[in-house]
Amino acid sequence: MPKSVLLYIVCGFLILSNIGQSFGQMDSIQKIIDRGVDLHNQGKYELSLVEYRKALKLDNTNPLLNYEMALSYYYMGDKAKSEDHAVIAAKDLSESGVHAVILLGTIYDEQGKGKKSIKLFEKAAKKYSDYYLIWFNLGVTANGMGDYDLAAHAFEKAVNNRLDHGSSHYALGTMMQVQGRRAEAMLPLYFFLLLEPDSDRSRNALVTLNDLWSEGVSMEAGENVTITLSVPEDVNIGLQSSDMMISMLEVSKSLEQNVGKSEYELYEDKLKGLFNYLSEVDLKPRQDFYTNYYIPFFAKIAESEHMETFVHFVLQSTDDESMKWLATNSQKLEDFFDWLDATEGKSLE
To answer: Which residue range forms the structural domain that includes residue 315?
Structure first.
């Protein structure tokens, strides 16, 4: 056999051997990480790190490994070592990299370095193509710093990139409620209830919505009604009038023409009134998720045959009658969701 052919065979065998060892090593690393994750999930953080350190000797730049180590150190309270490993993992364009960025931002936030956290998230948002969890966490940080405009922008970016992310709608609504922006709080909270209708958070959302409806409204014995408004000066001029409309809709349940109506009917009337009003008010030059999605979406519901179903669906966590109605009207509920599937994410013009 020619020497050149023999050399080729020997070299090929060595290459295949090395490849086999590399794959074996990768499998070994993954198995070690899996053991570490299992220990971490049991709350045995120190033992999980013992496993991770074994894998670190095989590949100290592995993004998943470094993220898991950062997480274990974080839960142990060692923020410095957690940051060291999270920085390594965050360099990788992967799911581990995203989680590492979020962990890093959390660490900076807890250290009182909010601006550093926001800068990290803004850079990561570009790197990860506006990934919704990056924007959500940026919003949480900005909200904690009192930068409500940036927080609103971030939460809106999050839901724009992941419409079914309930936490972003919920956070946006509760943040607006704290600022006294009633209509801007109501819409994301009602959308949240479409996504998460029966949970502790949904019950909290309904309590918040009831507070928003009755805010500044005092109905004494007889027919004496007092409406007190406190609208932030920076609210769009069109939305400023919505505060009065919300209060008037709340008061309308005591009007003579509404005597005899059920609590559900009164709720549907005022909610439909709000959705229709917001769709007609001039909000220019404002262009954001509210004007481009929330308002036209809810106006579409108000115009549809599904308004009754919508109201029962969002009230189910606190209203027994709505629960009973949904149980006996499964076809209407199915029709509503078919309609939603055809409506969400599409042009509502």
So the answer is: 230-343
